[in-house]
Amino acid sequence: MAEHLTHIAENGEAHMVDVGDKAATSRTAIAEGAVRMRAETLAMILAGNAKKGDVIATARIAGIMAAKKTHELVPLCHPLLLTKVTVDITPDETLPGLRVRALARVNGQTGVEMEALSAVSVTCLTIYDMAKAVDRGMVLTDIRLVEKEGGKSGHWRAED
């Protein structure tokens, strides 16, 4: 783990990290999150009866698009040529709600953690947006990085 914040220059100003001299390596990040909702809302989504359309398909596309645009959403992030982004959305009746898991991959000079986290966050936001007319009390929760591989710091996995 770095002993300093990499986006803070010696003079204290925020700056974009220069990754030009870093080796391009295969890098992968996995993030997850969830949207808690009323059981009736989950049933409506799963039945395909949301007024705005297919919640799960739309949210999946939104998450993939968010990963691709992370550098436009998060200051100081590098634009990346992602080689893979997947977004999995699974119902969980114990929440009740939907669990979201995203994987982002690149062969590049910097990691893809922010892309995976952006994919999960925007997927959850889209689920909320598409179902808010029937359940404004939904809660976006537990968004976190689960695992990352590649780069100088190697492999990291969250402790459960």
Question: Could you characterize what this model shows?
Answer:
- The chain has helices at 39-47, 55-68, 70-73, 113-131, and strands at residues 25-36, 82-92, 97-108, 139-149, 156-157.
- The longest helix has 19 residues, at 113-131.
- The mean pLDDT is 91.
- It has 160 residues and is of the alpha+beta class.
- Strand 4 and strand 5 form a beta hairpin.
- It is 29% helix and 30% strand.
- It is built from 4 helices and 5 strands; from the N terminus they run E-H-H-H-E-E-H-E-E.
Task: Tell me the overall shape.
Answer: elongated
What is the helix/strand order?
EHHHEEHEE
Structural class: alpha+beta
Give a count of the beta strands, DSSP E runs of length 2 or more: 5
Q: Compute the separation of the termini in Å.
A: 19 Å
Poorly predicted runs of 5 or more residues: none
Oligomer: single chain
- Lateral arrangement of strands in the main beta sheet: 2-3-1-4-5
* Percent range of helical residues: 25-40%
Radius of gyration: 17 Å
What is the arithmetic mean of pLDDT? 91
